[in-house]
Structures are given as C-alpha cells and as structure tokens.
Design a protein that fits this description.
globular, 203 residues, 8 strands, 8-stranded mixed β-sheet, alpha/beta
C-alpha cells in the first residue's frame, strides 16, 4: 500500500466509507436521497466505479472491495471528483449482501472480471454459484439487472448455465459496451482472451 492510499483510508474513509455491521442499511439515510442503487462487487482500484458514478449522478452506487490498497486508491479518486453518490464497503461481498443490503433495494449489481479461479479444483471458490444467484434474486428489485463480465470462457459458460437455471433472471439484448474498460479487462485482452459480458433482467 502506498503512503497516499494509507492516508486516504485514514482521512477519507469517514466521508465515503461504510463500516460493515450485520444489520440492514438505511440506504436513503446513507445517501440523503432516494435514487436507483447500483452495487459493484470487487471494484479493484475503483476507476470504473468512480467513472460510472460521475457519468450517472442521478444514481447511487455502493462498491465492495476487500483489497485495502484498491479502496485507498478509490477514495482518492472520489475525493478528486467530489462525488457524493458513492459509498464503499471493505468486507466480504456475501456477508454484505446477506446482512447489510435490504431485500429488493438494488436496481443493479455489477460483477466485472471477478477472480476466475481457473483450476478445476478451485471452481468452488468462484463467487458465482447457485446460492449467489438466489441471493441476488432477493436483493435486486423487479426490473433491475445483474451485469457480469469475464475473460475466462469456461467461467462465462458456467455463469450462463447457473443463471439459466434460476427463473428470476432472463438475458436481455441491452448494449453492454458503454462502460469504461477495467484494468483486468485490458490485461485479459493483452493475453488474447475473449471478453464475455451479459446483462440479465430481474423478472
């Protein structure tokens, strides 16, 4: 962690951070307004999260990331852009979804380039599992969306199969290429990986 990232965690966390507690958030109180709420799981260094929040000021965003240097970097970016529609949580995403996010409070969930755990024996560590999709179905409002992306095709196939088995979601024809690229996406392209991306509607 850089000195600047550590300083951001100390000085800026009280402004943009939400401490994990096993109790539902009062989302309107957190942001001071009602607005569609987007959750990004594993935001990395936060460049994509902050860009999307800056481009969509009428929406609220919560980003979850366990890697503290990335959280520190994101805090500096939020400060630089003076964004008021973003909050960060540094904790396990499944705990946050289960305990802190109220049911049917999310308009959308973004999951961009999660850890692929490429070896077969590691697949059980992947975040996308039937229980995870069932959890999302309880947290995303009707008409909302789940937007995953990955550069590992066997993970993409598994995501499609897992979501197809849950009638709460259906694939849409919505354009998915308008978001900025992530660091992991650029790395995948340099390695010659095909980018897979879908938007699924909560029905």
């Amino acid at each position: 962690m850089t000195v600047a990232q550590g300083r951001a965690l100390k000085d800026l966390w009280p402004i943009w951070g939400i401490d994990y507690t096993p109790a539902p958030l009062d989302v309107q109180k957190v942001f001071g307004r009602p607005a569609p709420l987007i959750l990004e799981i594993g935001f990395g260094n936060g460049d994509l999260l902050s860009s999307m929040a800056a481009d969509t000021p009428d929406w609220n965003f919560i980003g979850i990331e366990v890697h503290e240097p990335g959280v520190g970097h994101c805090l500096m970016r939020l400060h630089e852009l003076s964004l008021s529609n973003v909050r960060l949580i540094c904790h396990d995403a499944i705990d946050v979804l289960n305990q802190q996010i109220p049911d049917f409070s999310l308009h959308g969930v973004n999951l961009f380039f999660p850890d692929p755990w490429p070896k077969k024996r590691q697949h059980k560590r992947r975040i996308v599992q039937p229980d995870f999709i069932a959890l999302l179905s309880r947290k995303i409002e009707s008409g909302g969306f789940f937007h995953p992306a990955t550069d590992w095709m066997n993970y993409a196939e598994y995501i499609e199969e897992t979501i197809a088995a849950n009638p709460a979601f259906r694939a849409t024809e919505t354009e998915t290429s308008k978001r900025p690229e992530t660091k992991f996406e650029r790395r995948g392209k340099r390695l010659g990986h095909e980018i897979w991306e879908r938007i699924y509607e909560r029905v």
